[in-house]
Amino acid sequence: MGVRAAPAAVTDYDPLSRFAVRLNSLPAAGVSVVLAVLFVAGVLAYAAATLPTNLAAAPMPIRVASIGVGTLFVIAGVIGVRQRPRSPVGALLVVVGFAYLVGRLQGADPPGLGLAANLANSVWQGIIFYITYSFPTGRLRSPVDRWIVIGGLGYTLVNNLFVLVTSPTRAAPGLNPDNPWFLALPQTSVELVRPILLVIGYALIFGGTAWLTRRWLASSPPMRRVLTPVYVSALATGLVAVLLRATLGVVSPSTDPTQAISVALLIAYGFLPIGFLVGLLRAQIARAAVADLVIELGDLPTPPRLRIALAAALHDPTLDVITWSGERNAFVDTAGEIAQVPIPDSDRAVTVLERAGDPSAILVHDSAILDDPGLVTAVATAVRLTLDNERLETEVGRQLDEVRASRARVAAAADDARRRIERDIHDGTQQRLLGVALGLQDVRGRLNSGTPEAAALDEMTDQLQSALTELRQLAQGVHPAVLTQHGLGPALRGLARRSPIPVELVLSGPEERLAQSVEAALYFIASAALSNAQAHSRASQVVMRVDTNGNEVQLSVRDDGQGGAREGRGTGITGMRDRAETVGGRLAIDSPRGGPTEVRAFVPVEGR
Amino acid sequence: MQPPEGGAAALRMTVVLADDAVIVREGVARILADAGMDVVAQAGNAEELLVAVERYQPSIAVVDIRMPPTFTREGLDAARVIRDRFPSVTVLLLSSYIEVQDAMDLLGSPAGGVGYLLKESAADVGEFIASVRAVALGGAIVDPTLVAELLGRQRRVDPLSELTPREREVLALMARGKSNAGIGHELWVSEGAVEKYVKSILSKLEIGPDADAHRRVRAVLAYLDSR
Question: How many structural domains comprise chain B?
Answer without folding.
Answer: 2
